[in-house]
Amino acid sequence: MPEKMPEMNQQCDSWLMKGRRRLQEAERYLKQDRYSESVSASQECIEFSVKAIFSFFSVEFTKEHKIREQKFKEVYNKIPQECKEKYNYPRIYLLSNFWSEFYIEAKYGFEILKIGSDKIFEKGEADLALQHAYETKEASWAVIFHTT
Questions:
Q1: Distances (CA, A) of 26 to 90, 98, 116, 132
Q2: Among 1, 33, 87, 129, which residue carries the largest CB count within 10 Å?
């Protein structure tokens, strides 16, 4: 018999709402051609969506932007099979760590070179980050609102 799914907690709800707001901001920034801000907002949506899953399953995570594989495995083993059949959670893990690599540059640019983030990112990166933010948000909501 499958393990009973946990109830949503306040921290999980908070991560979901933060992620949704950042996704909306990413869309707005993209329409305004503010690509670095769109990338930054998408990256945070991805991060918050993944943290919502961790919080939902009461798995601790560090305050770093990158998730360690062993910690991801703890969460992955708790995700219902029905969700795994619909969403590629190892890919979500990859996307989370991929976009975490751009966290500093999307916010601050290259400080030593004195190049702002608005001079680094282009529409292609913003489009891709937004696509990945949608994918991650949907996968996290699928787990949290999954009913058996």
A1: 24, 17, 18, 11
A2: 129
Residue 80 has which token pair?
């219902």
- The number of beta carbons lying within 10 Å of the beta carbon of residue 37 is 21
pLDDT in tens, 43-70: 999 999 999 999 999 888 766 667 888 8
Placement of tokens 């918050």 in the chain: 48
| β-bridge mates for residue 110, sequence order | 115
Domains of the chain, start order? 10-144 (1.20.120.330)
Tokens of 43: 């990256």
Q: Which long-range contacts (CB under 8 A, 24 or more apart) does 87-95 make?
A: 87/135, 87/138, 87/139, 87/142, 88/139, 89/139, 91/135, 92/50, 92/135, 92/136, 92/139, 92/140, 93/50, 93/67, 93/69, 95/46, 95/132, 95/135, 95/136
Contacts of 33 (CB under 8 A, 6+ apart): 123
Two tokens, residue 75: 């969460």
Helices (H), 34-148: 35-56, 69-76, 81-86, 89-100, 103-108, 123-144
Question: What are the CB-based long-range contacts (under 8 Å, 24+) for 58-62?
Answer: 58/6, 58/9
